[in-house]
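WARN no homologs supplied; continuing
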Amino acid sequence: MSDSPNHRFYALHTSLLLVLLLQFCACGKTNLTVRDRERDGFKGPVQVVKWERQWKNFKDEHPSEWDNRQLWKTVTYDKIGNLVIEEYDTNYQAHIHDRYGRCIQTIFFNWNHCCEKKFYKTYDRAGNCMEERYVNADGQLIQKWTYQRIQEKNMDTVAVFDADGVMTGQSEWYYDDRGLVIRKTTLNPSDLECLFSYDESGRLVRKEQLSRDPQSDEEEETHVVILYEDGRETRWESQRKDGKLIHYRTYDYQFDEHGNWIVQTTVTHTAGDEPLEMERMDRTILYHY
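OK structure emitted
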């Protein structure tokens, strides 16, 4: 077999994946149709995705030169689309799912393969998260959150409590008749409101976010408007409360034969259309065959 970088890359992730699959297979079959891979916007039997990024600052002494390419992260999916491994510069995470495809445990490792902490999630019968908790390598509790949910027609209210039973946050979710989120408000410690718009097929086309720190002046309120096409960001704008543009970003993509983007180029501009910086993200994608 060839010892090309792609083959070595594939072999490394296959060996890591086998350990997690042994745990997953014991969970039995699943009836969940939407998996992590699909929620992450991938098409086809994606197995491994390696993300690399580089920047170009137009204010630098040599604005036409790219910085060195840096590995950002690598993710691995099993055959049915569960996210099982996330790798970063100095650590990696292993995710374990139940039979319905819900992540119930995340194990955090350093690059010496030593467990540093674990994260657990529990769900109710409807699939809503009811509790999250962190424990250290010895199993001692680090932090815990519990969720209380009140469901009404086209609206959910979710309150978050810490390990001492103190409410630390609350959010409200509003839905249209298709069950799509059209508005979300979050309280504590800062106020945040998000508005969502969709096309006739239920695909997100616009997200508007208003944030305000209660300790700041109204002038500090900002709007963020994000436009989407086929699940991808195409334009990002930061605006003041009065709608005045602060700066914006544009996105350009290149795709592979499966329709997944493999190059994303992002350019940040001033309100006067002056380019400030450019980021290029490359994705190397391997598929299950």
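Residues 155 and 174 are 4 Å apart (CA to CA).
OK
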